[in-house]
Here is the input.
Amino acid sequence: MRRILFLLAFIVPLLALGAPARAGGWALTVMDPVPATSPDTTYTLGFWLLQHGTHPYEGSDLGEVALEFTDGKRSLRFPGVALKEPAHYAAAVSLPKGTWEVKGIQGWFEPYRIGTLTVPGQLRVAPAPREFRQMIANQSPQEHWGVIRPPSVPLGDVTPGVPPSRAATPTPVATPAAALAGGSPGETTTVAIVEQRSWWRPSYVVTALLGVAALAALAYRVRRR
Here is the structure.
């Protein structure tokens, strides 16, 4: 019995280390300048995934990074490719005519609503949630980039040093009033097959299985005595 308790005391911390730290984690996606778009034309769009709105992701195993466009009937997802600069990605995008809600797929962070793209037309960027802007204003300035850097997040009327009014929560993506003709409701098109976000990470699962196997082996030895 003592051996089992000792083994549990050793395994439980390992399981905790294997699970990704999520408490208080948030990020937002900031777009590089987006040109006026035409239907069924390929564009390469740059974007930045900023943890806490100011710096590159500090962990590992972030997961899927992409841009997703939804018109109320269909959802098109274009995977992001990491560029040279930290937190900088690019996605090749081609969209039919219509009005599309745009959001950033941010690995294990909640998806972030970027704004609305009209094709043909331009991207209308939505303001960041006030609690996000307040937390950005409260952070000390840090330097992570050189000449190539992400656009600044407009802070609006927030005041540095004021606590956020509430904890950071993801902003839901609204369904646009305009939608493309054709297609059945709820239809989703995945442009590229990418790893789906999941709370269960491989490192966590492997650690858990090893712990269970070790406990089973120890229990078997105790029974044979």
Summary: The radius of gyration is 22 Å.
